[in-house]
């Protein structure tokens, strides 16, 4: 099982390049970068309790651009994988996003993981023209457009939420089939969509099943029911606690990657210390 970290980079916290180089030096296999474009002041959507709600942390308001941040880190590291964790794809143009990610993967030597998801803030999504009730199918079809552009010499896709007339686009990603795609989130609807069309489910563990001992078998049943081989669809854990016992249980379940949560800080030194503290778990797992 690979072990990575996720961090909300902001204009008040540690320098992303310094953080990324430190994460690579500690031995983390991957670094995931979240995104939020903005937050409408008069929002009606509550910050989800599973994420630490109801009060919205300030770091959500101050995040750097995801792809720019990942590019800076990629230019100053050698081996660490870089994940969009997650890209709120419904809010983006898929042709432009495919170009960004293909370019980053090409220039970094194949170090990108493409995590996508629906998000939770209705007002943020609607400001981008997203129809909230159609967000799952929108993400699916936009990702299909991106994958066509990554893998086909003459790319095309025709879906109800996104389509692409036959088109040329280079560079292709360094990874032959394009970056591995994760669908992030929790709950039965996300589980079903991940089972049907993602390379892996990027699951947020619930308070009721932090070890995923019930969730993982259920997901594999859903994958099989969808007509896919359960062995062909991976599972990764998003914002995993740095708990050696839980991480060992994830390994035993066949989890492919656990991405550990590092507490964001509005002081650069504190953010780096938080990373160092989380890195101590690496010596405690086999």
From TrEMBL:
List the GO molecular function terms.
oxidoreductase activity, acting on paired donors, with incorporation or reduction of molecular oxygen
Superkingdom in the source lineage: Bacteria
Luciferase-like domain span: 17-239
The record's listing under InterPro entries reads:
F420-G6PD/mer, Lucif-like_OxRdtase_Rv2161c, Luciferase-like_dom, Luciferase-like_sf
Name the SUPFAM superfamilies on file. Bacterial luciferase-like (SSF51679)
Q: Does the UniProt entry include the keyword Nucleotide-binding?
A: no
Which UniProt keyword terms apply here?
A: Oxidoreductase
Q: NCBIfam families attached here?
A: F420_Rv2161c (TIGR03619)
> What is the name listed in the Swiss-Prot or TrEMBL entry for this protein?
Putative oxidoreductase
Q: Which organism is it from?
A: Rhodococcus wratislaviensis NBRC 100605
State the organism's lineage. Answer: Bacteria, Bacillati, Actinomycetota, Actinomycetes, Mycobacteriales
